[in-house]
Design goal:
With 206 residues, this protein is mostly helical. The chain has one domain. Helix content is 70%, strand content 0%. The longest helix has 31 residues. The radius of gyration is 18 Å and the shape is globular. It starts with a helix and ends in a 10-residue tail after the last helix.
Length: 206
């Protein structure tokens, strides 16, 4: 079974999970909960479109049932943020909603646009470095987009736990992958120059 099956079904479940949480805790009048639903629920549906239209070859790999289920459960940790919001009746001020929605929108743009650029570039110019466009400043603009997206989700909960989970994902999953990718790309001519003028994840900082 492909790894994408477990990832895609988890993403598709997010909208239903959040609606169920709102119903269980009777938070129908909680504006923060509805905004969270709009953001995270929509992201799940957008992921399904991306998975179909311009899939990532990493998720096309076959995997064992146990690893697939482990991945599903790991992704489900992101549902802790909406659980905190509805179980505690968290309501953030409008200015904070604005900040989180803006982070989310920028993150969606970076994540999906850079993945589309990568998909098309590798189709048209296989086995060549992508060093322009959104990939011209940082070497992982797609992960920067995801960082903004999931940070917005975590911040809406006003709780340390979702932020801690996100940082755990970044340190244990994302960072090792980005380092391995750098080592793999080092075989291409021009990578040393490209690496010297770009940052790993955050423009001009890191």
């Amino acid at each position: 079974m492909k790894l994408k099956f477990f990832i895609d079904t988890n993403k598709a479940s997010t909208f239903l999970i959040i609606i169920a949480l709102i119903a269980i805790y009777d938070q129908w009048s909680n504006t923060t909960a509805w905004v969270y639903l709009a953001m995270h629920g929509t992201y799940g549906f957008l992921w399904l479109v991306k998975s179909r239209v311009f899939p990532d070859k990493r998720w096309e790999q076959t995997t064992s049932l146990w690893f697939g289920l482990l991945s599903w459960v790991g992704l489900s940790l992101y549902w802790i943020a909406p659980w905190i919001i509805v179980s505690r009746g968290v309501e953030v001020p409008n200015w904070f909603l604005t900040v989180c929605i803006s982070m989310y929108a920028l993150g969606v743009f970076l994540h999906f646009s850079s993945d589309m650029q990568k998909y098309v570039s590798l189709k048209l110019r296989p086995n060549q470095l992508i060093t322009e466009g959104l990939w011209g400043t940082v070497r992982n603009p797609n992960y920067l987009g995801e960082l903004l997206i999931y940070s917005a989700f975590a911040f809406l909960s006003i709780h340390w736990l979702p932020i801690g989970i996100l940082m755990l994902w970044v340190l244990v999953i994302w960072m090792p992958y980005m380092r391995r990718k750098d080592r793999s790309l080092s075989r291409y001519p021009g990578f040393a120059e490209y690496k010297s003028r770009t940052k790993l994840l955050i423009p001009y900082i890191f």
